[in-house]
Amino acid sequence: MYIQSGELVIISRGDFHFSINSKFLKSLRFCIILLLLVVSTVPCAAAYRGIIKAYESRAVSLRTADIQNQCTILSNQLNSYNYLSDTSSEVINASLTQLTNIYNGRVMIVDKELRVIKDTYGLDEGKTIVSEDVIRCMKGSSTNYYDKANRYIEVTSPITTGETEEISGVMLASVSTDTIEDSLKILSTKGSAILGIVLILMLGISLFIADRIVKPLRRITESIADVSEGYDDEVLHVNTFTETKQLSDAFNKMLGRLKQLDQSREEFVSNVSHELRTPLTSMKVLADSLLAQDDVPIELYQEFMGDIAKEIDRENDIIADLLSLVKMDKTAKDLNIKSVNINELMELILKRLKPIAEKKNVEVVLESFRPVTAEIDEVKLTLAFSNLVENAIKYNQEEGWVHVSLNADHKYFYVKVADSGIGIPEQDQQHVFERFYRVDKSHSREMGGTGLGLAITRNAIIMHRGSIKVYSSEGEGTTFTVRIPLTYVA
Ligand code: ADP
Description:
Layout: E1 2-5, E2 8-13, E3 15-20, H1 22-25, H2 28-80, H3 90-103, E4 105-111, E5 116-119, H4 132-138, E6 143-147, E7 152-161, E8 166-176, H5 178-229, H6 242-292, H7 298-329, E9 337-341, H8 342-359, E10 363-368, E11 373-377, H9 378-394, E12 401-408, E13 412-419, H10 426-429, H11 441-446, H12 453-463, E14 467-473, E15 477-485
Parallel strand pairs: 10-12
Antiparallel strand pairs: 1-2, 2-3, 4-5, 4-8, 6-7, 7-8, 9-11, 12-13, 13-15, 14-15
Bound molecules: adenosine-5'-diphosphate (ADP).
Adenosine-5'-diphosphate binds at residues 387, 391-392, 395, 419, 421-424, 432, 437-440, 444, 449-455, 478.
């Protein structure tokens, strides 16, 4: 016989050889099958052994009691026939022979001197018997003993004589337990057969159950493999069990997030290419127009070269901002956290930006409500706050103002940057933190904006487990509020 089923190969030539590869041994299917088999058959096997043992001990004790009874009755008869002095009584001899035949055993009568006066086998008559049980019985207590290996039960019963009931001999009976053994054999054969049937049944049931449990998992694996090859609009629906439903829901969620990430990556790459190409295109146009003309006046050369230099600066700005953004995208473990005096930090930022503000005639005021020290990455937050204040100056009107305030409570510090600028239209407010998003592209370009400033700011704040909000009304001004924990929690 040769059966091959999946990973399990059973070859039978007289006896069985199992060749099971380790992949199957480690599989959930195998574990379930094994578990169910063990759980179902071990109690059955234990019950089977228990029943056999109980039957054996019950049968032996019944047989022992039975013989003990017979011996007691016979001992009384021996007494009345005075058998110890004269063993010729036919009635007694017949009773002894009957007892021997019924139980397939041997009976010996021993007198006070431990001499065998009657042996139903006729082998040991006249011999002296020195047995512990006989001596103990002579002192008055009946004994019994079950020899399982040699399959017999030995029983002693005292023989009393006279009115005083003095012990004057012992009746020693040993009977075979072959009939008990035979019954045990039949019982054990039947038990083994039932156990075998249970095992086969359970094997079938556990194969079925294991298959039912493993099937949804296999379907999930197949679907994941399909998805890995290229996720179009594939979603998992394996609702067989609550757990598999949860698994497929979690997977679908992850898939959605992957798609989102993929989409935003594509968008980002195309935005970056576009943004980097714009200054290059301008430079190309400027250079081409110079090359196309003969005898270009030096003034025009200077003007165009100045424009080209501006575009190069712009390209540089974009690249610098992109690098900052990439750095902010890294995990929080890249933060260089130190305890920093925020009041001094804000003063320094405003001092650096003062020249730009003066150029636009914008008044910049810092209002510190209390001394604040916090655990932050100084470089990253300086960049974040600088961007906010710089925007407040850039998108302001002539003679406008920028109010920066710093406050704190026991948990957070708060920075508010308010301006009297052009404001942000309501529909744009939720997008201003996106990369390359600009409300007015040409105006932003004029101001030297890259559209990355607020994205960098927001990333830096989020890395500090903080939050940023924007409030604005068009034509009136904009306020950015930032909240950052005083102590950094990784
Ligand atoms: P940019 O480099 O263009 O300034 P940002 O990411 O810093 O890019 O800002 C995104 C857009 O949000 C800007 O183009 C601008 O339109 C708008 N914006 C940001 N700050 C202000 C502000 N204080 N007032 C008005 N508009 C602002």
